[in-house]
Amino acid sequence: MTFKEFNNLSKEDTFSALEQCCVSKTWVNAMIESRPFSSENEMIKKAASIWYNDCSIEDFREAFTGHPKIGNVDSLKEKFAHTSEWAGNEQSKVAEANMETIEALAKANQQYENKFGYIFIVSASGKSADEMLAIVNSRLNHNIEDEIFVAMNEQHKITVIRLVKLIEGLSNNSDMSSHLTTHALDTSTGIPANKMLITLKQFKNNEWKPMSVGITNNDGRIADVLPPGQLLKPDTYTMIFNTENYYESHNQKGFYPEVSIQFTVTDASHYHIPLLINPFGYTTYRGS
Fold first, then answer.
1. Given 15, 46, 64, which residue is the final one in a domain?
2. Could you list the residue range(s) of the whole structural domain that residue 109 is in?
3. pLDDT at position 250
């Protein structure tokens, strides 16, 4: 449907449409009451504002129930049956995920649900089975109180993806960029540092708390550290690059097991945190 048609839907039809994107009743009802939206951009910003400012942990948990459980070997084999990756400017077909990875991912999914009480929520678009396994294993280290805020961040990424599918032209007429992006380059080889786990943290209650966990793509980038419409509040944050696992996966040893970069957010402008890494040194700066 078009944006104009969405604005003119009945409340009942709007509820049904938005429920396809997120099943939290609090979020859906607040979106309905916010209509009519003056623009697609306002809609994206309001969707994030409601989710991050007006919804509770109970609402997050309710939203998680709207996703199918992918935790057994058969469903994972089907999901990752045709995996392909990009390397530079060439597309190289990768064989379907091997059974060892599939079984490990199924086990990790179950461990996650057993620990946290809800299924593993992640914006899986474009991610391979290996990448998903690395992310879930990283998030299994979180405590129960912290992980739900990482999961709710992923939930809203999925919500926005579904809003784009729901409303024609939404992505063309609104700002779909992340307030924060990152890029890792391995200067020892001159190529992007792909499959590097990166965690964004904020200082809360006298501790560094995880906000988002991602993994660099074949271009060494994470473009969706945050969902569209979500702005970091002015504060100091830290981005942790798991360089130890990265170098182990490349059969190398590095001097730094991780690189932690603290940075200060002061406004709504775009923040890009690049890392130039080699086994014995690194450089960072504010990118564009």
1. 64
2. 73-153
3. 84
pLDDT > 80? residue 83: no
User: Residue 208 to residues 202, 215, 237: CA-CA distances in angstroms?
Assistant: 5, 20, 9
116: in domain: yes
Same domain, yes or no, for 199 and 141? no
Together in a domain, 135 and 102: yes
Residues 6+ apart with CB under 8 A from 272: 180, 181, 182, 183, 286, 287, 288
Query: Is residue 162 a part of any domain in this protein?
Result: no
Q: How far apart are CA 150 and CA 66, in angstroms?
A: 17
Taking the C-alpha atoms of residue 119 and residue 64, their distance in angstroms, rounded to an integer, is 7
Q: Are 57 and 79 members of one domain? A: no
Q: Which of 229, 203, 224, 228 is nearest to 213 (CA)?
A: 224
Q: Quick one: tokens of 177?
A: 């960029």
Contacts of 103 (CB under 8 A, 6+ apart): 73
Q: Give residue-wise pLDDT tens across range 200-245.
A: 999 988 899 999 999 999 999 999 999 999 999 999 999 999 999 9
Q: Which residue has the tokens 């006298």?
A: 206
What is this structure's pTM?
Answer: 0.88
Residue 268: count other Cβ atoms within 10 Å of its Cβ.
Answer: 10
How many separate domains does the chain show?
Answer: 3
